[in-house]
């Protein structure tokens, strides 16, 4: 959750693209999911295409994708290495705003040659809205990439706005494997809880869960100025489709 790359603008004197890119390069990230990101005419960063702007900082040929949520200029994003061929960019799957929810939410998804990568950001106010989000996301994933529908693993990540013990995560675990570390991700610089997660859909596709950590420091940048969240990574190994 990059907070529009502006959480620490007053401290840095610039948007935190260099800091986020440095962290991604430090851990050799291949595909990155991002929350609270902007694209188009708005008051943030002079209307910049923020996913594309980060992609250019990461290297030549990096791809960017945006899925709107609360409005047409604000939502979630995916940036990916040019090593991964894009097969399809899905339109945003919307999670409607209910009466007790803070805002409308969404999930974005990109299908690559060998895997499917999804990103979401669940509601910060309502447990019921989060459960609704889990239901909508899971039904979509199973309908499009469930058992016997694909040979590709489906990865989902994001700021779920809840701790591991909450019912939201319990509901996720009915159809998804939780593959990321149970380590504090919020709030910089004094983390107090884990609210950011990586899951893999239980669709019968074999994969191996590897190393995973919340990144609390790097040798290349001041990570506490990149966002009020610490990033979390997960290594996932699977058979290529070729």
Overview of the structural elements:
The chain is α+β, with helices and mostly antiparallel strands. Helix content is 20%, strand content 32%. It has a six-stranded mixed β-sheet with strand order 4-5-6-7-9-8, covered by helices on one side. A three-stranded antiparallel β-sheet has the order 1-3-2, with helices on one face. Helix 2 packs across helix 3 (50-58).
Summarize the structure in short.
The chain has helices at 9-12, 17-26, 50-58, 127-145, 167-172; strands at residues 31-38, 63-71, 74-80, 86-95, 105-112, 116-121, 154-159, 176-178, 196-201, 207-214, 232-238.
| Poorly predicted tracts of residues | none
Radius of gyration: 17 Å
Q: In which range does the helix fraction lie? A: 10-25%
Whole-number average pLDDT?
Answer: 95
The percent range for strand residues is 25-35%
How are the SSEs ordered, and which strands pair?
Elements: H1 9-12, H2 17-26, E1 31-38, H3 50-58, E2 63-71, E3 74-80, E4 86-95, E5 105-112, E6 116-121, H4 127-145, E7 154-159, H5 167-172, E8 176-178, E9 196-201, E10 207-214, E11 232-238
Parallel strand pairs: 6-7
Antiparallel strand pairs: 1-3, 2-3, 4-5, 5-6, 7-9, 8-9, 10-11
């Amino acid at each position: 959750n990059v907070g529009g790359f502006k959480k620490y603008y007053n401290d840095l004197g610039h948007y935190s693209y260099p800091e986020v890119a440095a962290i991604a390069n430090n851990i050799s990230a291949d595909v990155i999911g991002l929350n609270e990101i902007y694209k188009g005419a708005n008051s943030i960063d002079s209307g910049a295409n923020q996913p594309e702007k980060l992609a250019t900082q990461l290297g030549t040929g990096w791809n960017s994708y945006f899925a709107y949520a609360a409005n047409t200029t604000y939502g979630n994003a995916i940036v990916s290495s040019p090593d991964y061929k894009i097969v399809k960019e899905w339109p945003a799957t919307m999670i409607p705003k209910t009466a007790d929810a803070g805002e409308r939410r969404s999930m974005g998804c990109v299908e690559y040659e060998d895997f499917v990568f999804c990103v979401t950001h669940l509601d910060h106010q309502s447990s019921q809205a989060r459960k609704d989000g889990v239901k909508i996301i899971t039904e979509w994933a199973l309908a499009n990439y469930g058992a016997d529908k694909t040979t590709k693993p489906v990865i989902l990540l994001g700021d779920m706005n809840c701790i591991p013990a909450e019912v939201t995560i319990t509901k996720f675990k009915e159809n998804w494997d939780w593959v990321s570390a149970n380590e504090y991700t919020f709030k910089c610089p004094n983390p107090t809880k884990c609210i950011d997660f990586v899951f893999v859909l239980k669709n019968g596709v074999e994969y191996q869960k590897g190393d995973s950590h919340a990144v609390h420091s790097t040798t290349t940048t001041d990570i506490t100025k990149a966002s009020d969240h610490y990033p979390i990574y997960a290594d996932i190994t699977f058979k290529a489709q070729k």
